[in-house]
Amino acid sequence: MEGPNGMFRFDSGSVETSYQSWCAAGATHHAALLPGLRERELKAATTALGIELRKV
């Protein structure tokens, strides 16, 4: 089964530090990436759903 592959760069620091923070936040092998800056929309959605948003 083939699927799309992508690359991204954390804007919060070094790869090592950002990746460790991402894993500590409970990241799984399923991730969603969005183009652009969407923090405001994600915060509104997570607040409405009663779940935590962790920016890495």
Percentage of residues assigned to helices: 25-40%
**First and last CA, distance:** 30 Å
Continuous helix count:
2
Order of helices and strands: HH
Protein name: L-arabinose isomerase
Keywords: Carbohydrate metabolism, Isomerase
InterPro entries: Fuc/Ara_isomerase_C (IPR004216)
GO molecular function, one term: isomerase activity
Q: How would you portray this structure in words?
A:
- The protein is an all-alpha fold and 56 residues long.
- Helix content is 38%, strand content 0%.
- The chain contains two helices and no strands.
Task: Indicate the topology.
Elements: H1 15-24, H2 39-49
Based on the model shown, name its key terms.
isomerase; L-arabinose isomerase; 38% helix; single chain; mainly alpha; isomerase activity; 56 residues; 2 helices; Fuc/Ara_isomerase_C
In short:
The protein has 56 residues and is an all-alpha fold. 38% of the residues lie in helices and 0% in strands.
